[in-house]
């Protein structure tokens, strides 16, 4: 993950009107406080990222292109189930309330997020990363983190992919 962050720093430094901002890294005590708040152990790769880098966002002309939600707001940024596709379904509403929304996929105008799935944990305590898109029914699949998983994505894989995709997309401009 650190190598991906370094690639992002170098890339942003070469782009006019683009900037990269980091929050302060979190201490172990701050992580424990968050885990108590959410009632679950946060994924180790996410914790390492927060301890090392904090959260980040990339701005272009003052508009956020990519970034991470502040860790104390992982429920606060959750979409309203009433606005979600099939949000009147109790399973969809429950999934939205349970997920931890850590990163927007798009800009603030559209509520599309990446989130942690508390129902999907590997033996190493990694949580699966799933997509929430405003126009599709949302659910939290179970047991993808097991040895039978074909599509499990943890935070470290996710954040490296997001950074590399961002560099590839904006490198073409």
Please tell me what the overall shape is: globular
- Which blocks of ≥5 consecutive residues have pLDDT under 50? none
Q: State Rg.
A: 16 Å
Proportion of residues in β-strands: 15-25%
Q: What is the terminal-to-terminal distance?
A: 25 Å
Number of DSSP-assigned strands: 6
| Major beta sheet summary | 3 strands, antiparallel
Q: What's the overall average pLDDT, rounded?
A: 85
The tally of helices reads: 5
Query: How are the strands of the largest sheet arranged?
Result: 1-2-3
Helix content: 25-40%
**N-to-C series of helices and strands:** HEHHEEHEEEH
The SS-based structural class is alpha+beta
Description:
- With 173 residues, the protein is an alpha+beta fold.
- Helices cover 34% and strands 20% of the residues.
- The chain contains five helices and six strands, in the order H-E-H-H-E-E-H-E-E-E-H.
- The chain has helices at 2-13, 28-38, 44-52, 90-98, 155-171; strands spanning 18-22, 56-60, 63-67, 100-104, 113-121, 127-132.
- Strands 1-2-3 form a three-stranded antiparallel beta sheet, covered by helices on one side. The chain has a three-stranded antiparallel beta sheet with strand order 4-5-6, with helices on one face.
- Strand 4 and strand 5 (113-121) form a beta hairpin.
- Helix 1 (2-13) packs parallel to helix 5 (155-171).
- The chain is globular.
């Amino acid at each position: 993950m650190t190598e991906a962050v370094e690639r992002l720093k170098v890339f942003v430094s070469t782009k006019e009107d683009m900037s990269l901002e980091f929050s302060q890294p979190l201490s172990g005590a701050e992580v424990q406080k968050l885990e108590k708040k959410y009632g679950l152990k946060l994924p180790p790769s996410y914790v390492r990222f927060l301890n090392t880098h904090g959260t980040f966002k990339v701005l272009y002309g003052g508009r956020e292109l990519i970034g991470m939600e502040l860790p104390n707001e992982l429920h606060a940024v959750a979409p309203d189930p009433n606005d979600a596709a099939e949000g009147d379904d109790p399973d969809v509403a429950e999934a939205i309330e349970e997920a931890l929304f850590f990163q927007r996929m798009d800009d603030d105008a559209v509520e599309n997020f990446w989130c942690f799935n508390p129902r999907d944990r590997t033996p190493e305590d990694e949580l699966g990363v799933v997509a929430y898109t405003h126009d599709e029914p949302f659910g939290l699949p179970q047991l993808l983190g097991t040895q039978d998983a074909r599509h499990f994505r943890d935070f470290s894989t996710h954040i490296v992919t997001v950074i590399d995709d961002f560099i590839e997309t904006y490198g073409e401009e």
